[in-house]
Amino acid sequence: MSVLLAIYCGVPYIRSILNGKTKPHQFSWFIFAIMNAIVTISQYLKGGRASVLISLTFLISNIVILVLAFKRGTRQTSKFDMLLLALSLITIIAWAVTKNPSVAIWLTVLIDIFATAMIVLKIKNYPSSEAPYAWFIGTAAYIFSCLSLADKKLGILYVRPIYGVLSDVAILVAIYVYSGKKPKNRFRKLT
User: Fold this and answer.
1) Domain contains 189
2) Average pLDDT over every residue of 39-57
């Protein structure tokens, strides 16, 4: 069920990008794609099988969104965005140096915090730049991914799905908190 929801989650988001309603943040989706590649490989190496499918599905979706972001997205380059990108890349290098799947899973949480922060900041500045429906479906997909681990003892394999729920909910909260506010600049300037 989590994989079906993960597949379906990408459809409205991609459609929203193609319709010009969503302007994906290029740096965030670059980081998400790298992070989901790390998560997929690390969880598989730690013994995950069915629970890895959601990460693989999100990886494929992230790559499609990243490609679309280069043409239809935004590359906000505030100093804070550049700092978050640099911290994400440092974290990725730290994972490559350790080559430990458990460390990699925890580091992807740190990477995701930076990427999610970029999206929340973009939403704050451009409230209508994200469609909530896809994030809602993503949250449900992560919940089902947690349920797929019910036969496993609480451990490292739970980290990413639980964090996925928390980060998607944070984005949903940002969308709803800032949805009534006017953008700082015209939405056209986002590109």
Assistant:
1) no
2) 81
